[in-house]
Amino acid sequence: MTKSIFRGIIAISIAFTLCLMLSSCSYFSQYSNVEHAKDLRVGMTKAQVLKVMGEPLRDQKYNTPDLWYYYVNTEWHDFLTTEDECIPLVFENGKLAGWGNEFYNRRYVVESKKNL
Description:
- The protein is of the alpha+beta class.
- It has one domain.
- It has helices at about 1-35, 45-55, 100-115, and strands at about 65-70, 85-90, 95-100.
- Strands 1-2-3 form a 3-stranded antiparallel sheet.
- Strand 2 (about 85-90) and strand 3 (about 95-100) form a beta hairpin.
- The protein is elongated.
- It starts with a helix and ends with a helix.
Protein backbone atom coordinates (compact mmCIF):
# COMPACT_ATOMS: atom_id res chain seq x y z
CA MET A 1 0.00 0.00 0.00
CA THR A 2 2.80 2.42 0.83
CA LYS A 3 4.47 1.72 -2.53
CA SER A 4 1.27 2.53 -4.43
CA ILE A 5 0.86 5.83 -2.53
CA PHE A 6 4.50 6.68 -3.22
CA ARG A 7 4.06 5.85 -6.93
CA GLY A 8 0.93 8.03 -7.06
CA ILE A 9 2.77 10.95 -5.50
CA ILE A 10 5.64 10.49 -7.98
CA ALA A 11 3.20 10.32 -10.92
CA ILE A 12 1.39 13.48 -9.80
CA SER A 13 4.72 15.27 -9.27
CA ILE A 14 5.90 14.34 -12.76
CA ALA A 15 2.59 15.42 -14.32
CA PHE A 16 2.70 18.73 -12.45
CA THR A 17 6.29 19.35 -13.51
CA LEU A 18 5.46 18.61 -17.16
CA CYS A 19 2.50 20.99 -17.04
CA LEU A 20 4.69 23.74 -15.65
CA MET A 21 7.35 23.16 -18.26
CA LEU A 22 4.89 23.18 -21.15
CA SER A 23 2.99 26.24 -19.97
CA SER A 24 6.18 28.14 -19.27
CA CYS A 25 7.23 27.78 -22.92
CA SER A 26 4.57 30.25 -24.04
CA TYR A 27 5.02 32.33 -20.91
CA PHE A 28 8.71 32.92 -21.56
CA SER A 29 8.34 33.08 -25.33
CA GLN A 30 6.38 36.30 -24.90
CA TYR A 31 9.55 38.03 -23.75
CA SER A 32 11.69 36.69 -26.57
CA ASN A 33 8.97 37.61 -29.09
CA VAL A 34 8.97 41.20 -27.84
CA GLU A 35 12.77 41.31 -28.08
CA HIS A 36 12.82 39.69 -31.52
CA ALA A 37 10.18 42.11 -32.83
CA LYS A 38 12.74 44.89 -32.36
CA ASP A 39 14.69 43.34 -35.26
CA LEU A 40 11.75 43.41 -37.69
CA ARG A 41 11.89 45.74 -40.68
CA VAL A 42 9.22 46.63 -43.21
CA GLY A 43 9.84 44.79 -46.47
CA MET A 44 11.27 41.61 -44.93
CA THR A 45 10.26 38.37 -46.63
CA LYS A 46 8.36 35.70 -44.76
CA ALA A 47 11.53 33.60 -44.63
CA GLN A 48 13.44 36.48 -43.03
CA VAL A 49 10.67 36.99 -40.49
CA LEU A 50 10.70 33.29 -39.64
CA LYS A 51 14.44 33.50 -39.08
CA VAL A 52 14.02 36.44 -36.68
CA MET A 53 10.79 35.49 -34.91
CA GLY A 54 10.49 31.73 -35.30
CA GLU A 55 7.21 30.00 -36.01
CA PRO A 56 4.00 32.00 -35.44
CA LEU A 57 0.98 30.61 -33.64
CA ARG A 58 -0.17 28.25 -36.37
CA ASP A 59 -3.14 26.61 -34.67
CA GLN A 60 -5.15 29.77 -34.09
CA LYS A 61 -8.21 30.39 -36.26
CA TYR A 62 -7.40 34.08 -36.72
CA ASN A 63 -4.06 33.36 -38.42
CA THR A 64 -4.05 33.65 -42.19
CA PRO A 65 -1.24 33.27 -44.72
CA ASP A 66 -0.71 37.05 -44.64
CA LEU A 67 -1.51 37.69 -40.98
CA TRP A 68 0.71 36.00 -38.41
CA TYR A 69 0.42 36.25 -34.65
CA TYR A 70 3.09 35.85 -31.98
CA TYR A 71 2.36 35.51 -28.27
CA VAL A 72 3.43 38.59 -26.26
CA ASN A 73 1.15 38.86 -23.23
CA THR A 74 0.13 36.39 -20.52
CA GLU A 75 -1.85 38.56 -18.14
CA TRP A 76 -4.66 36.08 -17.66
CA HIS A 77 -2.76 32.77 -17.45
CA ASP A 78 -5.88 31.01 -18.67
CA PHE A 79 -4.04 28.77 -21.17
CA LEU A 80 -6.11 30.30 -23.99
CA THR A 81 -4.45 32.35 -26.69
CA THR A 82 -6.51 35.29 -27.89
CA GLU A 83 -5.73 38.00 -30.41
CA ASP A 84 -5.27 40.63 -27.69
CA GLU A 85 -2.45 38.54 -26.18
CA CYS A 86 -0.55 38.51 -29.47
CA ILE A 87 1.29 40.83 -31.81
CA PRO A 88 0.02 40.70 -35.40
CA LEU A 89 2.47 40.74 -38.31
CA VAL A 90 0.88 41.81 -41.58
CA PHE A 91 2.24 40.74 -44.96
CA GLU A 92 1.35 42.19 -48.34
CA ASN A 93 2.65 40.60 -51.53
CA GLY A 94 4.90 38.31 -49.49
CA LYS A 95 6.64 41.20 -47.67
CA LEU A 96 6.20 42.47 -44.14
CA ALA A 97 4.00 45.56 -44.32
CA GLY A 98 3.95 46.25 -40.58
CA TRP A 99 3.27 44.80 -37.18
CA GLY A 100 1.56 45.54 -33.90
CA ASN A 101 -2.04 46.15 -32.93
CA GLU A 102 -1.83 49.87 -33.74
CA PHE A 103 -0.64 49.15 -37.28
CA TYR A 104 -3.22 46.41 -37.78
CA ASN A 105 -6.09 48.54 -36.45
CA ARG A 106 -5.06 51.61 -38.44
CA ARG A 107 -4.53 49.63 -41.63
CA TYR A 108 -7.46 47.21 -41.56
CA VAL A 109 -10.09 48.24 -39.04
CA VAL A 110 -10.15 51.90 -40.08
CA GLU A 111 -9.96 50.98 -43.79
CA SER A 112 -12.84 48.52 -43.49
CA LYS A 113 -14.99 51.21 -41.80
CA LYS A 114 -14.21 53.63 -44.65
CA ASN A 115 -15.40 51.07 -47.17
CA LEU A 116 -18.80 50.63 -45.51
